[in-house]
Specification:
By secondary structure, the chain is an alpha+beta fold. It has eleven helices and four strands, in the order H-H-H-H-H-H-H-E-H-H-E-H-E-E-H. Helix 5 packs across helix 6. The relative contact order is 0.13. Residues 76-85 have low confidence and may be disordered.
Length: 184
C-alpha cells in the first residue's frame, strides 16, 4: 500500500511510490522540469510538497492534490469530499447571464486532466480574453469548486451546476457584465 497523497506529501516520496506520475508532474511543473542537474532536481523534489508545487503551478492546492490523486488512482482517499475531491458548492439557479451570454470558449476539464494538463490556467487565460456578453464554459464530471472560487476571487462572475447526472457545467464571465445584466 502506498502512502496517502496529501498536501504535505513531498514530490520525491510521491514519485518513489508512483514513478508513472513523474512525466505528468513535470508537465504541470515546468519550472522543475527545466532543471538539468539530476542532483539539483532530486534536491528540489525532496524539498517540495504538493502544496508548494501547486503554488508553483499557480493552482489551488486542493484541486492540484485532487488531480494528482486521480492520476495515481487514489480518489478513495477523499472520503470527506465530493466527486473529484472537491467540496460541492450549494446548488444555485442558473443566472440570467449564464443563459444569455455567448459561450466564446468551451473547455473540457476531463479531457485536459486525462492529458495531464490542469484546466485552471486555460480557464483563466480564456476569461482574460472575454468581450462584453461572452463567457467561458467548462464541462467536467465533478464540481470544480476550487476553480469556481478562484475565479470569483479573481474578479469574475462564476456559476456551476449539474447539467445532467454526473456532468457539471461551469460558466465564467466578466463580473461587470453579469452585474450590468442583473442590474437592468
Amino acid at each position: 500500500m502506498s502512502a496517502r497523497i496529501q498536501p504535505e506529501t513531498r514530490l520525491s516520496v510521491l514519485i518513489d511510490s508512483h514513478p508513472e506520475l513523474e512525466p505528468r508532474l513535470m508537465t504541470a511543473l515546468p519550472a522543475l522540469a527545466g532543471v538539468r542537474s539530476d542532483a539539483m532536481r532530486r534536491s528540489l523534489l525532496e524539498g517540495t510538497t504538493l502544496e508548494q508545487a501547486a503554488r508553483l503551478a499557480g493552482l489551488p492546492a486542493p484541486e492540484f492534490v485532487a488531480t494528482v490523486r486521480a492520476w495515481a488512482g487514489a480518489e478513495e482517499e477523499e472520503a470527506a469530499c465530493g466527486s473529484g475531491g472537491h467540496v460541492p458548492l450549494p446548488a444555485t439557479p442558473r443566472p440570467a447571464w449564464a443563459s444569455r451570454f455567448t459561450p466564446r470558449f468551451l473547455v473540457d476539464a476531463d479531457e485536459m486532466l486525462a492529458a495531464g494538463i490542469h484546466p485552471a490556467g486555460k480557464v483563466k487565460q480564456c476569461a482574460a480574453l472575454l468581450a462584453h456578453g461572452e463567457m467561458v464554459v467548462l464541462t467536467s464530471s465533478f464540481c470544480p469548486s476550487p476553480l469556481v472560487q478562484m475565479m470569483q476571487h479573481s474578479g469574475f462572475a462564476a456559476w456551476t451546476g449539474e447539467a445532467s447526472p454526473g456532468r457539471w457545467e461551469s460558466c465564467f464571465c466578466r463580473k461587470e457584465d453579469a452585474e450590468g445584466l442583473t442590474g437592468s
